[in-house]
Amino acid sequence: MSEDLATRVVDSIARNYRGGRDHRAAHAKGFCAAGTFTATSAAAELTRADHLQGRTVPVTVRFSNGSGSLESADYHIDGRGMAVKFHLPGGGTTDMVAISQRVFFVRTPEDFLEFTDARRPDPGTGRPDPNAVGDFLIRHPEAEAAFSELLSAGPPESFATVRYNGLHAFRWLDAAGGSRFIRYSWLPEAGESSLDRDAAKALGRDYLRPELEARLAAGPVGFRLLLTIAEAGDPTDDPTVEWPEGRRRIEAGRLELTALTGDQGADCERQVFDPTRVTDGIELSGDRILSFRARAYDVSASRRLT
Looking at the 3D structure of the chain, how many domains does it have? Predict the structure, then answer.
């Protein structure tokens, strides 16, 4: 994968949001919370990864809006993100990155560049040209499911009431040498809940952070890690396609958040959350969007952290 393509993608996203180089190209507006994760015995049977053996490990979790603008209003139509950094016993880290959508827009990095270019704001309106987006959808009907899901979702009541999905497949390897492909989701213990846009707008442009801070002051916020196990024939390299209903599902652990991180700079915004940062017992699938993310993150991080 060429570094040039990653640079072009990051530049295209930044142009669409009129963003600078001092923040993330996408999911720019966010904040972090601290907590712990404890895996179930079922997870330990599926992988030998250190953080999934049942011991409690510390985590840093970043919640975010999908926009590349630091000024994005929390009530806007947007995807939401939850990135989890596991702090491993040996001092290393590994990441899980999930969003509120169940599928992605495209299958390849080249198509993603075409997608971001199609969303270039019209100079007259400041918004994407509907004709350009429509033409993109004609060329890429696989993107319709993601567009429909995004446009139909209401603003969340809380970052704690969103289901977050890891869109990519990963190969989990167990201690006996067996393996299987999985996808994961984080299920909110508070239940899934969204707001009417007018009700969300009445809460202000930045209601999600104080809402979660108040929620944490009243007690821990929990999420359950749910795995879906692939069967023969399920695509492991295509994030635009959901696996069929009826696949085996396993609860793999519980995430508990207790407070926002004290230093939102060093402990949050200077951190890179990369789904390709895996540890022994977990391998990447052949998903080209997944492998490309590390390249794009490198471009974005090198700009904002230097």
Answer: 1
